[in-house]
Specification:
This protein has 197 residues and is mostly helical. It is built from nine helices and no strands.
Length: 197
């Protein structure tokens, strides 16, 4: 989410949490457009009325799914950054380590934000700011970390790191070659070790 755009969120009841859990699994495995509210309700063990009472629309379920996934990713990444060596390059590499661990555990089909953007490219969709905001947040993170390494060229280095990172996530989801995220980490490490200028 951008600094000014915050999506409307709902208060989670036990039934809403069951809906969200079922929707998250189904959306990620099958795609957002391919999954209807009937299937979500059936998988969650609730009626369609309950689903609509809690969320109001399928769009709101999508918002909650992506916002929840983004929040969990940020918390997961924060643990890696907190545990990393304080050296600036080590903190950059910790992002790749976190992505490798997260992808191995949670993202066999690639990045949920990239996958969602393939289906939701309309900026007026309420989930669109979550998708683009998550990627902007990642670029901002790389820019802050790069600023500790090359203050005068932080934007350039951050964009290169972002391209390595996002390309690795896409390659992971496509499963074209093994271990794309560790490969991207190696490339980032080589880039960070290269003399600047």
């Amino acid at each position: 989410m951008g600094a000014t755009e915050k999506p409307r969120r709902i208060t989670m009841t036990p039934a809403a949490l069951r809906v969200l859990e079922a929707a998250a699994r189904l959306f990620y495995e099958r795609g957002i457009h391919a999954v209807g509210v009937d299937l979500i309700a059936a998988e969650a063990g609730v009626t369609k009325k309950t689903l609509y009472d809690r969320f109001g629309s399928k769009e709101q379920i999508v918002v909650e799914y992506l916002a929840d996934r983004d929040e969990r990713w940020r918390a997961f990444l924060d643990q890696y950054l907190a545990a990393a060596d304080p050296a600036p390059s080590a903190r950059v590499l910790a992002v790749f380590d976190a992505s490798h661990a997260w992808s191995s555990e949670h993202s066999s089909k690639g990045c949920s934000m990239v996958n969602a953007h393939a289906e939701i490219s309309d900026p007026s969709h309420p989930a669109h700011p979550i998708i683009t905001g998550q990627k902007q947040w990642m670029l901002d993170l790389f820019t802050r970390l790069a600023g500790d390494i090359t203050p005068g060229q932080a934007d350039r280095l951050a964009r290169t790191l972002m391209l390595l990172h996002e390309g690795a996530l896409v390659a992971h989801g496509l499963n074209i070659f093994p271990d794309p995220i560790p490969h991207a980490r190696e490339q980032a490490q080589a880039l960070l070790a290269a003399p600047s200028g």
